[in-house]
Amino acid sequence: MRHKIMDNNEASSEMISSIDQRSNGLRVPFGRRGNRLYGPSEVIRGKSCDCVCPGCGTALVANKGERKREYFSHWRGAECSGGYESAVHLMAKQVIEDTKQAFCPSFSTRIEKEAYPGHLLSEDVNRESSLLAFDSVKLEQTAEGLRPDIVACLKDGTEIYIEVHVTHAVSDDKRSRFANKNMFEIHLAHLTLEDVQDMERFRHEVLEAAPRDWIACQLHNDEIETARAYLDARVQRYRAEHQARLDEESRKRMEQKHEEAQKLARKHQIAERREQLRQQYHAPLQALRRMVQDDGAAVRNQSLLEGAESSTPAILERLNVTPWPPCLDVPIEGDWILNAHRTIWQAYIYENCIVSKAKNTTLHTNLIKQRIVRQFGLLDWAAALVNLKYRYKQQGKARGQWYGRKGIWFLEDKENAMIPSPYSIVHKFMESLVKEGLLEQAQPGTGLFVIRENNIAALHAARARKDEEHRLAQEAADRKEQAALEAHRAQEQSRLAIARKIREERIQSLIQVITSLKQSGHDSLMRCEHCGDHRPYQDGNCAVCGHPRLWEVHLTESYLSTLNYRLRCVPGIVLDTRSTRQITNEGAELMPHFDCPDAN
């Protein structure tokens, strides 16, 4: 339990000093007559006020003047240092005794309890400052062997002990003895002279506004116990929930360990089974590696080719083609699995599935694959792997397992990839015939093809005719383009000749104009950087071409001697100002340019 209580034993020296200054400025703010205190304004003037100092008991004089503030002073004696403190202290008790009421301090306490290690729960009890009305108020009555400043009793008989702090806070002994009682302290050390002299303000400070705090408080014990009971219930609930979480986490850990153990055991079982099955197919796998990774495929292809040489002439005669068509000798990866050279089985497909069929007939890759396998057969050990891969694919798809896409589950991915697929071999050959123009794929991504042309010789003849027609058309187009190019060149040469003539005429005309201006007495002219026009000084743009850049040039002998070269370097010199005809900049770029000595 923690109470929000101010420690008054730590009063600073500055506060005591300020109290001393106030006591020196106002010797005794209240005088005592009998058992009551009075202010200077409440008694008659002079020693007749019949008041004594609350601190030392010396007779007081009530001083009342028109200009000075009313005050008490000691009669024929030095002012005592304790008079101010005693007067303020006693008057505060008198105010509470007269009114039988006072505001108690606010109350705040927190109850904490550990729900489980590392987690605290708490409940707060908070009450704002409230007015206490007393049935009785007694001063300086002994309680617990000590004398509290005020003993006030509530209507229900509860005693409230009140301490008034002016310069001396509640002692540790008093705090200890009243720890199980209701005691609070009112702090008046901060009051100014004006606060003390203004009785209404002083009463307000004493009863309500001045800071106050509990030394000990038992008024809210019932609420504290209620909060403690609620906290105990919360703690029990939290502990039960925490234990349930711990039990659930423990159960899940046990289940996880059991599952991991089962997975590990299953993994070991699968590894043992994988190794057993791999041993059963050790020989075919070794042969597969030699065929794919070594030179086994090349050796087998050479052997099959040698066996096919005797059958080639008869096939060419039946197909009525010579030499052997490249489209029936298409290398396809993995075709070593067939017991026939690629020229033989590809010619078989062409002869029995295309030549013998009408155009627009639909061909099924799977049916053709079945015919090829029946006709030529597969390499025995490879056929066992192919059938095993197909069986596991079907099984994996039915079970929704990963090996439904790869094939034999106990083989590595690269080993599954090395096993050829007869269907894929035939399908790739059919796709090559699409590029050749014999077939057309009915639907993308399917094994359906449509016959577009069923005769290689006719296809080649038609292709040759098209190539010849294209060649002749290209030659005609080339001749036409050459004629147009020559006509354009002739036209361009004519245009350039005209441009050169106009350019020369323009240059000579400018030279004559400049020479004439020189002879008429002009030593300098304005020159257009674009068209080369020279004329006496002028503002604005060129009068001939409108160009904004005009430069002043001096008609020196050196300048006039190089004028012909300078004018040839001007970009807009081809402008014909004598008519509406204009030679374009493109034509100017085609004309030769000259290096101008001393062009600057």
Automatic annotation (TrEMBL):
Keywords, alphabetical: Coiled coil
Organism: Marinobacterium aestuarii
Listed name of the protein: Competence protein CoiA-like family protein
Ranges in coiled-coil conformation: 239-274
